[in-house]
Amino acid sequence: MIFSAGLALGAFTFSDKAIAQEIDSLPSQFDSSHIVTAVPSPRQLGWTPPERFHSTVAGIAIPAVMLGYGFIALNNPTLRDVNTSTKTEVKEDHPTFRTQIDNYLQYSPVAAVYALNALGIHGKHNFRDRTIILGLAAVFTAGTTEGIKHWTHEERPDGSDFLSFPSGHTATAFASAEFLRQEYKDVSPWYGIAGYAAAAATGALRVYNNKHWVSDVVAGAGLGILSTKAAYWVYPWIQQKLFKGKSEHADKVVMPYYNPQFHSAGLSFIFFPR
Asked: What are the chain's domains?
């Protein structure tokens, strides 16, 4: 075995020397550098290094304070009085108010991202990247919300169940609004403002529908924003591990999902158009 390996090494060494001699024998005007070829780098194949996510201190502190407010309100008499008085005033002013718009409005910022791209107004990421980021944000939002709901066991204002805190609709709405803002903040700040307006309306409607306390909505908003920021922070690492050396038009990817209706989680295998 050693003898064979030595013969093979000798053959490769001889071959290299022969090639070098052939190159040296070429005319002086011949550019021999073109004979040497290099393996294309990941950048040449269409892959670019992921851009790291950055946020201001206020961008993290504000939603964290909102989430903290909700937790404090669970046992603070003063803040619980704010919840009760707000409920009373809403019921006195709008005793018969009912709507289901909040069930759909929570997703409107996400719909806007894909609609804008379809219209040619492109955001920060391509279809694959933004879809994976959205999936991560949805998993973080829904998974955390459902876990806290079952842990805190807070009764809803209408007494329908004990899954009031935090507001899932509001968390989803603000996660969606932050997603829209992140994708289009470099195009125009008004897209983010519109998304947050829709999210705020969703939270208000949850209170008007007597499904949540004010503190539920405030905490849900903070949780949703932080969840999307976490998705943007995690994704560059995922992009580097999964897609390094691959074109941005990779046609398939495994993405996590969470279904809050059936309390189930898993992985989905998704194909993207080239």
From this structure: 57-241 (1.20.144)
State how beta strands 264-271 and 252-259 pair: antiparallel
Q: Note the pTM of the prediction, 2 decimals.
A: 0.74
pLDDT digits (tens, 9 = 90+) for 33-61: 444 444 444 444 444 555 677 788 999 99
What pLDDT was estimated at residue 245?
52
Rg, C-alpha atoms of the chain: 28
202 pLDDT higher than 60: yes
Instruction: Return the percentage of the chain with pLDDT > 70, whole number.
Output: 70
